[in-house]
From TrEMBL:
This is poly(A)-specific ribonuclease. Gene3D superfamilies: Endonuclease/exonuclease/phosphatase. It is an enzyme of class 3 (hydrolase). GO terms for molecular function: metal ion binding; poly(A)-specific ribonuclease activity; RNA binding. SUPFAM superfamilies: DNase I-like (SSF56219).
Amino acid sequence: MLSVVRVHLPSEIPIVGCEITPYVLLRRPDGAVSTDDVPETAPTDGQFMRYRWYRIQSDRKVPICSVHPMEQATIQCLGCLKSKIPVAKSYHCSAKCFSDAWQHHKVLHERASSALNENGAEEDELFGRFGSGGSGVLSTAGSGSLSNFGQSPSNGPVPLYPSGTDKNSGETWFEVGRSRTYTPLADDIGHALKFECVAVDAEKRTPMGPPTSIMTSRVIPAPTPTPRRLIQVNGDVLGHLDLDSQTSSLGTFTVLSYNILADAYATSDAYSYCPTWALSWTYRRQNLLREIIGYHADIICLQEVQFNHFEDYFAPELDKHGYQALYKKRTTEVYSGNPMAIDGCATFFRRDKFSHVKKYEVEFNKAAQSLTDAIIPAAQKRVALSRLIKDNIALIAVLEAKFGNQGAENPGKRQLLCVANTHINVHQDLKDVKLWEVHTLLKGLEKIAVSADIPMLVCGDFNSTPGSSPHGLLAVGKVDQLHPDLAIDPLGILRPPSKLNHQLPLVSAYSSFARMVGVGYDLEHQRRRMDPATNEPLFTNCTRDFTGTVDYIFYTADSLTVESLLELLDEESLRKDTALPSPEWSSDHIALLAEFRCKPRIRR
């Protein structure tokens, strides 16, 4: 007989918009134990599994703090209600909570006053909108007034299925789902859910025993991070753009680079400060996708994208938003885990802005093999390869723009663009290997540059801080021969140091913040988030163990100019005493985004 052995939930906290698929262990009629489902459409021995989800209504709905979703709310912002901001975002657990969050919260008022329901009420209710900046002036219409409430407002939900009462417990409930998977809605916030499963006789349509059930804790709203604006850096006046309505102007395009933190690395051991529910992939993937889509980038370069997540989630989801996908998986000479879980680099581009011309794949393992064959004695090759082979890769895409800015001087001239996406995942002690991989990539890009007059972008996580030899090679075109990193070269792969150079005129996009002249709140705000000694952001990676900059977008300054940049985060934006990942931000890195314009070509 088909029966349930055990049921448990993947996370103790259900979150609005985050799919829940309980773990159900079944004993089949032949005695085998399996987690494979037995649906009504494919019964086994005349039996199948029936699933039900219920919303428990036995007590009044408990309002949840929009900043600290594990805390019950005690005050409510009246300005949110007046501005018709989703009610879930109006709740706070204390006056201090509201005060600390005001810089973030006031942006909701600004957004509401300038573009009410621009992206649809349902999306706002569930997740909020990323990146809209409003006018930059605090709206006087949506004040920060508060009200204490003793009685929670009613959601007034309409049951999807007939409601009922559990005679044993006296709990009032109504049915909200009839599948194994359920995605909590805004109406579920503050209520517990019950999952129920039972084996059913396919012919008689009757249960074959009592159901097995499990309860969740109260549903909480999905936390929303501080909106990030696009700051204009090229022009007479420093301004900012609204990402919600932002579309690249003629001849410009935007590029996003983001290490999204592969699920295989997002463990509670590594990130013990992050709630387990916020580390779950079902939560993180939706939070990441919302953020990525919200930036409206024309080109997206992602690192640490697991192969199965690319195939099953990111490629099909971004395809719905008009993106074509390219992917390169890391090699597996060192990796010994699940082959589907190995990560790599994914590059997406908007079909209406670009077409795909050519794809290059760089495997540093192959380059290491060629190097050792050329310069390492046979007796030392095994040791050398064990040091050099790290399974890292780079994905290079040559795209053709479907927009033009060449004007009458170059009628019909193709506008090509080369985009390199990489993750140099090398231990900090192997400085020689890290520098060698960056140098190898740049030499490969030089060959492409020689063969075509083409602007270039080099994006990714280089695991190299400003001032390191890889960063110097990228930003300056050479490595100081007295750089301390060169002292670590047991294989002699960096000799002579004079060879460590390239001819690409690369500049870090975010150094534009440091080079801007003028005064103003936005400018000073961004300068405080930059390191004046290196002209790079103070951090792009922020954990309890490390805070620093390792992610970059480099561009060829002879063919591209930076028009605007996505504003940087600071400690205030991350909320006090918070490291990444967090419930608001689902990676330990922050996203970088730059808008570029192609410089007019000069006919020769």
